[in-house]
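[job 0412] stage=fold_complex status=start
inputs:
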Amino acid sequence: MAKNTQEKLSPWDIVQIARHAERPNIADYLRLLCDDFVELHGDRLFGDDRGMIGGFATIGGEKVVLIGHRKGRGVEENIEANFGMASPEGYRKAMRLMRLAEKYSLPVVTFVDTPGAYPGSEAEARGQAEAIAHNLEFMSTLKTPIVVVVTGEGGSGGALGIAVGDRILMLQNAVYSVISPEGCASILWRDGTKAALAAETLKITADSLKGLGIIDEIVPEPAGGAHADVTAAVAAVKKAVLANLAVLKKIPLDKLVEQRYAKFSAMGRF
Amino acid sequence: MAWFEKSAEAPARVPTEAIWVVCPGCKAYIAKEAWRAADKVCPRCNHHDRLACRERVALLTDAGSFKELNAEVSFNDPLKFTDSSGAYADKAKANIAKAGVGESVLTGTAAIDKIPVVLAVMDFKFLGGSLGSGTGERILLAAEKAIALKRPLIIVSASGGARMHEGIVSLMQMAKTCAAIARVKEAGLPYLSILTDPTTGGVSASYAMVGDLNISEPKALIGFAGRRVIEQTIKQKLPDDFQTAEYTLAHGFLDHIVPRKEMKAFLAKVLRYAGF
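[job 0412] stage=fold_complex status=done
writing structure:
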């Protein structure tokens, strides 16, 4: 039954589910998936980005460093979190925490849910491009396991800035794309109303991305989407994260980093 | 003459393309020969015009030293992408013919003032210098070649960013190229990044911004998001100098802005400081 419902969804339908206001956000995951969470603030350079959250977390007894984009619920929270659009200090905080993870031999788990990195003038002034680029470089050699979960919107470079990892998981109704369907439609079709067509053409759903070899695993969602049964949705994510951590922790770190390089090197070879 | 009558503009002395170049910076007519002699830098306003990849190679390397690598690596069309103006595969093929290069980057081994290097030069004429899977693969292979030969890696960027037509595969080239750059650095080899006009989006947010040195040319456009997107976000007009090389340097993300005619000597000097 759930499967039949799913099969009828178009990529554009899935975009709507991925952006649904009641879709589990980082606060839900911290509350329902973690036994414990110690938030760590600040990039030590400029500020503390409330659009990017991170800290020590315990998931099913496993100690990790957890980092994720933060979308709020309601107007006030969303303004504080800048609607999940992180600034350079968010990416730099993420890197600082990942460095700490490496030092303390803790695996990193990242939760990706952003429309994109913040396109504001101050973000440019403080080096949005450099902050993301530096993370990509840094994460490729980090000597600790990294599990990435695309939970909602994987918006371009702003998503990738915390999404270089050993295992890339994606929720069934999440999307991950180089550009928003609306942006692509307005540039390539010169018509913003062609977003549904762009969503289909860009192949941004979990199924398509699995087929392209970009993601490793699809985490199933309850019928109707993760927001329809948040507890069940979070439980499925927890199970998938723990299973992947168990596998990765057995791999010697040198080999792990080598495999990560091989994984990303192979992307785009056909 | 009535106000609504269009005044007949004298068409008599319109210069022909064969003799003149109109500087995109100051709109002055510059004799084509002088334009070429100045490597497409305007003698009037110092506008540094965009160069084709082979023009840039000629400018930066010792004569005859450049040997292209991985010319067979070209674009892929993993999404079988078609938009309102046609199929991506057709456009890419047309761009190969137009730009005379198989991807948006030309890579090879070369010498700069006798210092052997591995060089990658992007070409904005090829689909706006966009970062496709072929681009990413060529850059990764160039980085691996630099490591194998123990040579410095130099990348000259010119790009609007990711290539939408390759979707998520294009996005992943940012991670792929940065992973390769990380290895060059781990091998203790210099990586010099030259950001030319324009270097934006997914290219500025990957290999272009993580040079040991980030170098640019006067007035080059460098940024992450597009000006229009930012203006819509902040609902304000941005100053003219926003996202120029000078702005980027003032904010701490460039080491040096080097005039085109001095670039080769500058690179050689830096490489000597790096022990080459």
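[job 0412] summary: Chain A has a mean pLDDT of 96.
[job 0412] exit 0
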